[in-house]
Amino acid sequence: MNVTQDLSFISLIANASVLVQLVMLLLLSASVISWTYIFRKMFTIRSARVQTEEFERVFWSGGNLSALYQDALSNRRKAGSGGGALERIFQAGMGEFNKAKASVAARGGAVDNGALLDGARRAMRAAYQREMDALESHLAFLASVGSVSPYVGLFGTVWGIMNAFRGLANVQQATLAAVAPGIAEALIATAIGLFAAIPAVVAYNRYSHDIDRLAIRFESFIEEFSNILQRQAR
């Protein structure tokens, strides 16, 4: 009964050296933060996908672009940031196109279709970069946790095993019972490191794939919408 109590999970952590406890605390903190980002990013990407599909359905239904632009402006005023990433990209391009066209009409000069399209494309590209930065936020942290946590846990394990064998120097007869608690508490650090790393790696790979698919849809929309604006500018 005493051996079982001494080798319990909580007892091993409580009896570990200060450095190993600090390593465990660091890994647990990284795990909690990474799980927070994992759930937040899951809802963010899911919402972005749904909003993108909804806007594509409305956009390709053949409605009036000016009315769609006014709806996008209304959604932005209501929600503060617009109805979705693709809608904000459309709003940036259409808004720049309308402003440039109105500016040329006010001056009474000839309309340069190339300049109008370049301005709209640059505005959509800038909006695209902002949306991608928002979607990719915190992914670097997940990648860092996934790649570094096993090594941090291994460092705690090595340190704990070193202390366990140093303790054997004061024992005349080394037995498994004498070294087992020290090795067990050291291995907990590796286990916690893997617990922090595996979900972070899985989430990073999954979310990177989902964001890449959204990026392809955004870029395709920019090209297709640019073609539509080109036809309207003629």
UniProtKB/TrEMBL annotation:
One of its GO terms (cellular component) is plasma membrane. It comes from the Bacteria. Keywords: Cell cycle, Cell division, Cell inner membrane, Cell membrane, Membrane, Transmembrane, Transmembrane helix. One of its GO terms (biological process) is protein import. InterPro entries: ExbB/TolQ_transport, MotA_ExbB_proton_chnl, Tol-Pal_TolQ. The chain crosses the membrane at residues 12-39, 139-162, 182-204. Residues 88-219 form the MotA/TolQ/ExbB proton channel domain. The keyword Transmembrane applies. This is Tol-Pal system protein TolQ. It comes from Herbaspirillum robiniae.
